[in-house]
Amino acid sequence: MFCPKCLQEIPASSAACPFCAHNLAPGEILSARPGTHAPPPPFPRPAKQSFLSRVPAPLLSLITIVGAMLVLMMGYYKTKLWSHGVLTPEASGYFIGGLLTPTLIAWLIVWLTTRKRVPPVPGNHKGVMGISVALLVSLLSLSGELSRLRPSSENETRERIARLAKEATGQAPKSAEQGKFDGIIRPFFADIKKFNDDYLAEVNTLDKSAITPLYGAKTFDGDSNLGKAIEQLRAMEAVEAKYASMEPLLQKTKERLFASSLSDEEKKEFWDGFEGSFRKSLKPRDDLNEIERLWLKDSISLYEFMQDNEHSFHVKDNKVVFASTDLLNEYNEKFQKADTERKEFLAAKANFKKLQEEGLGKIGLKPADLGATGHN
């Protein structure tokens, strides 16, 4: 009980307050201090509901199932792009990894954001949250794959070809495959470099002592000199004929392409464009080889004519003197024909070298980068 004056707690049987000496009238003692009553409990506020709480449970389950199917479809499509449509063990592993990654990321995010929620987040809500994260991760991953496969600009294509050529010829370290055709283009440039190197190696071993200077009077002086001149011209002709066609390089590239894991459609599309472009670029080279072939053929014919008539002329003061006017006229005719073709060949060779430099220059290369000398 409590004193009504000082509000101190006093025995219930007290007639006066032992603290303030206040005389207590019957019934005056208070049962509790004023103002000490506990306030009534607050009116409970309704729990804040999330958006998912307003969605029917069957619809949440349907959203989760559809989302899972979309993640599966995006994973399959991304794998198809990556493997170029060819199902291999590596492609299967890539597909499984492509599904596990968004799934694990989604699980981790949902677990971190809901583990301390009170009350606990319902399972179907977690399912929708998780599949939303997985969809986002899958979409970003697919976008990355699509951007990697987007058509390259002209400058990007030139830079990539130049890079592959330099890697193929040992001028730059080999980089990781960045395009699905890198494994076809890079070896092609390596084949060209080897082709040119082999050609130069054989040309440099040719003996030209008997035809230096070509058509000079001393090269016609005597059967021995004539025989050597013809032999050396024929050796030149044989080397040029051996390396006249680059068809073996084209066929080697074709075999490499069709043995790759690319789809049939990709192989056909690449080959149609590559073959047409390569054959077109070979036209100036083929024309040059034809001019050279005719020049060497008529040069051999001139020396063979001189060998057949070696007793009908002699060399005096570094000039060829014929006993017969008819033979002199025939000699002049053959000489003029061969010499004209030689000049045409040299002019065509200079023009081909210029075209070669301009063409390779567009992709940042020089003929020497591929072992070319302006002829091969």
Protein architecture, described:
This protein is mostly helical and 376 residues long. The chain folds into three domains: 1-33; 58-148, no CATH class; 154-370, no CATH class. The protein contains nine helices and two strands; from the N terminus they run ααααααααββα. It has helices spanning 57-83, 89-114, 123-148, 154-168, 182-204, 223-242, 247-258, 264-308, 325-361, and strands spanning 313-316, 319-322. The protein has a two-stranded antiparallel sheet. A hairpin with a 2-residue loop joins β1 and β2 (319-322). α2 (89-114) packs across α3 (123-148) and α6 packs antiparallel against α8 (264-308). It is rod-shaped and about 175 Å long. The mean pLDDT is 84.
Q: What layout of secondary structure does this protein have?
A:
Blueprint: H1 57-83, H2 89-114, H3 123-148, H4 154-168, H5 182-204, H6 223-242, H7 247-258, H8 264-308, E1 313-316, E2 319-322, H9 325-361
Helix pairs in contact: 1-2, 1-3, 2-3, 4-5, 5-7, 6-8, 7-8, 8-9
**Strands across the major sheet, in which order?**
1-2
- Distance between the terminal alpha carbons, to the nearest Å? 121 Å
Strand content: under 5%
- Helix content range: 55-70%
By DSSP, the count of extended strands is 2
Please state the CA-atom Rg, rounded to the nearest Å: 47 Å
